[in-house]
Amino acid sequence: MKKIALFLALFVVVMGSCSKMERNEKKYVKGMQSEDIETSTAAFNDFCQWMQKDQETMTYDFPLMKKEFGMKVVSSPDSLVRCYSWVTNNNGKEVFYASIIQWLVGKAFVAYSGPLDFVLANRKTDLKNYSSFAHSIDTIFMISKANVPVYLIAQSYYDDGVRRAYVSASRINGVKLSLVPFFFDGMEVAGNADFVDDGKVSIGDLFKWDDKAGKFYAYQTDDDNHIIPGKYTIYVLGENRFSRLPDE
Q1: Three-state SS at 143
Q2: Which of 92, 162, 168, 238 is packed most tightly, with the most Cβ within 10 A?
Q3: DSSP string, 34-98
Q4: What is the pLDDT of residues 125-153, one digit of tens each?
Q5: Are 28 and 50 in contact (CB under 8 A)?
Q6: What residues in the chain have per-residue pLDDT under 70?
Q7: Distance from C-alpha of 237 to C-alpha of 243, rounded to nearest angstrom
Q8: pLDDT in tens, 154-190
Q9: What DSSP state is assigned to residue 101?
Q10: Residue 14 carries which DSSP code?
């Protein structure tokens, strides 16, 4: 009987937590869908505040945000870093995004609502409708240097029908998620070239990490800004950072 009572108590706790998450998500989504700009903005800001304060959000799936706003959720392989991004406005030429980044330091939960580049530069901002500063956060690769995880976070964005993507290297330093400077053969990022995208270019076409060979691959483009299939800039992992191999 004690085991049954304990199971029921745990079931109630779990179900109560899920209900709270679902209720909050539904409330904020409804507010953000309002045609009243003040209501939608307030709901957006409240949603960001919730994501920054509630550690349970880091393991919640956000089915309604995915369905209604196309929210993209990506996590590092060790589950210590999680990123969210979604489109806030698409005027046909430019696409504007929102993004939220969360990470764990031991048992401590840290989160930031704002552009990833601001986070990595340890730049604080109270700007919530940051739109043009934020990008789609597409995936997180993870490598290890001296048993310290380094997170390679891929972002992309559209501008007048052309897409650009790049990867930044970061690590958890104290309680901060900080940029690892000059990690790509003296450069801050890999990729970062405009290319034509009809919506069929996946992140796997742009960047690859070969853990066994210690090599990272970044896409290349031709003079007309088209992806060159099968051609990559190749970086090999050294003692402190990547070194670029000569193009074949």
Answers
A1: strand
A2: 168
A3: -SSHHHHHHHHHHHHHHHHH-GGGGG---HHHHHHH--EEEE-TTSSEEEEEEEEEE-SSBEEEE
A4: 665 556 567 899 999 999 987 788 999 99
A5: yes
A6: 1-18, 125-132
A7: 6
A8: 999 988 779 999 999 999 998 999 999 999 999 999 9
A9: E
A10: H
pTM score, whole prediction: 0.88
Amino acid at 110: V
Task: List C-alpha distances in Å: 104 to 55, 78, 215, 234.
Answer: 9, 10, 27, 31
Residue 214: both structure tokens together: 């210690």
| Contacts (Cβ under 8 Å, ≥6 apart) of 208 | 216, 217, 232
- Burial of 26-58, coded b for 16+ CB within 10 Å and e otherwise, reads eebbebbeeeeeeebebbbbbbbebbbebeebb
Cα separation, 20 vs 136, whole angstroms? 27
The CA-atom distances, in angstroms, between 199 and each of 161, 162, 164, 195 are: 10, 10, 13, 11
Cα–Cα distance between 203 and 193 in angstroms, integer? 14
The answer to whether 87 touches 96, Cβ cutoff 8 Å, is: yes
